[in-house]
Amino acid sequence: MTETTHLDRAHAAMEAGGEAERLRYYQTLAAAELFLLLEAEAEDDDVVPQAFEVEGQTFVLAFDTEERLAGFAGAEAHYVALSGRAVAEMLAEAGLGLGLNLEAGPQAALLPNAAMVWLTETLAEGPQEVEAQPESFHPPKGLPEDLVTSLDARLAAAGGMAELAYLVGVTYDSGAKGHLLGVVDAVPGAEPAIARAVAEVLALSGLEAGLLDVGFFRGSDPAAARMALVGLRFDLPKPEETGPSAPGLDPAKPPKLR
Q1: Which residues of 108-147 are buried (b: 16+ CB within 10 A; e: fewer)?
Q2: Residue that finishes a domain, picked among 103, 124, 145
Q3: Which CATH number is 70's domain given?
Q4: Which single residue of 10, 35, 64, 86 could bond 25 by disulfide (Cβ 3.0 to 4.6 Å)?
């Protein structure tokens, strides 16, 4: 029997819950790695996905594990691995919907193009870069529990991008107060992806982007030691040593639909 995945659990919670659970499902979808089923092997980053029609709407097929894709299409199936966010962007532009885990999981879903457009537009506004100098840190207070849970899940999916992060309250040299996610020892070049991931968590939590800032620190920085004394710590998992399973594995460089 196929193991239950994060998407399965999020979909079941959405069906049983309300708006908060719906947002959490799309948050999980955006962060998930999806395996898009293709008609033939990708060439020069151009892909032709397998598609089908339901009531005049065209859907493409994707699965949240390689095992589910193989169970549906066979071990020799062609596919491309992308983040849910990248898949949504591709399908929104192409006017296509998403058939997710059809005949391959307990929580199969048909997501129309309108859902892909909504998700893409919701995530379109990236983080704003500002210059501010933290003056002091204190324990985080008053943040929604759902936000903390969502941050934990999203950082767990960012394994290999940084060593760890601290969620702290912060007072800046300007006198402004707020909350900060202090990311420690980020891999060079990973900072924009981490900041965007946090912005997506906020966008799909129904919260204002200004509720939480993101800062980057080295482990040798005195600020990292100060955050460790008062902050909520998130350890990012070490990445698994695996190579790309198909062209377009990098969500920052998705293939083109043909």
Answers
A1: ebebbbebbbebbebbeeebeeeeeebeebeebeebeebb
A2: 124
A3: 3.40.1350.90
A4: 10
Lowest mean pLDDT among 50-54, 91-95, 128-132, 234-238: 128-132
Residue 256: inside a domain: no
pTM as predicted: 0.71
Element spanning 5, H or E:
none
Last residue of a domain, one of 85, 102, 124: 124
Query: What percent of the chain stands above pLDDT 90?
Result: 44
DSSP string, 15-37: HHS-HHHHHHHHHHHHHSEEEEE
In this structure, what token pair is assigned to residue 164?
A: 């760890």
CA distance 24 to 32: 12
Distance from C-alpha of 113 to C-alpha of 189, rounded to nearest angstrom: 32
* Residue whose token pair is 């394994």: 159
Alpha helices in the chain (DSSP H): 6-16, 19-31, 66-73, 84-94, 113-122, 145-156, 191-203, 222-230
| 101 has pLDDT over 90 | yes
Do 107 and 78 have their domain in common? yes
Q: Which of 8, 14, 13, 80 lies closest to 42, judged by CA?
A: 80
Domain that holds residue 101: 6-124
What does the DSSP assignment read for 89-118?
HHHHHHT-EEEESTTTSTT-EEE-HHHHHH
* Phi, psi (deg, nearest 5) at residue 256: -100, 140
Same domain membership, residue 13 and residue 39: yes
pLDDT tens, residue by residue, 23-36: 889 988 988 889 99
Same domain assignment for residues 138 and 119: no
